[in-house]
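Annotated sample (chain length 203).
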Amino acid sequence: MRKVSQAVVGGVAAMSVLTGCSFSWGGDEKEKEKVAEKKLGDKGTACELPVHFTLATSWKADAITQATVDQMGPLGHQGPLTPACQLDAKPAGHIGFLTVWSGTKGAAAPGGTSRALIKKFVAAENFESNVKFREVKAGDLPATEASYNVTDLSAGEVRTERALAVMTKHGGVVIHLGGLNTDEHKAMLPAFELAKKTLGLTS
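Output written by the structure step:
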């Protein structure tokens, strides 16, 4: 199954269902500073998630609602997960996305392991190969990271992709980095690494 970040992005944007990420600052300067310090994922940010992390400069985040997921049909699922937030690299000069996926059932159920979750997520890809898993730290959280190749038959090319899975009391979360091609993927890796380094649980 193709991911939302490559197969459905155009359609999702056209439906104009996604929530914009622009903040409207108000109140005194202290309030501005307080809001500015929030990481993506916290309450009041573009995407409220079980985890939070620092968004790379110029990237644009859009929440994906349940209504949008329902309209996607089968493309709105990757293993036991559904897309919750899409981070567009275009404003930063790249072509690709970081997509945050979440779920509460199956391998994503609270109490499960990040390794079992990431295996289910990657297995739901089409034509994946050269899959490598490793246990890592994402912020202070135990996590499992996967790097792998995906063969795009329509484009006649092989792309590199990466994904990171963590478990929370609200279920599993996967942060996935795709890209138009392997060169774009490599150019966007710093945003993935920033999210990984600053990852934490929301309250």
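Annotation: Residues 5-36 have pLDDT under 50 and may be disordered.
Annotation: The CA atoms of residues 11 and 72 lie 9 Å apart.
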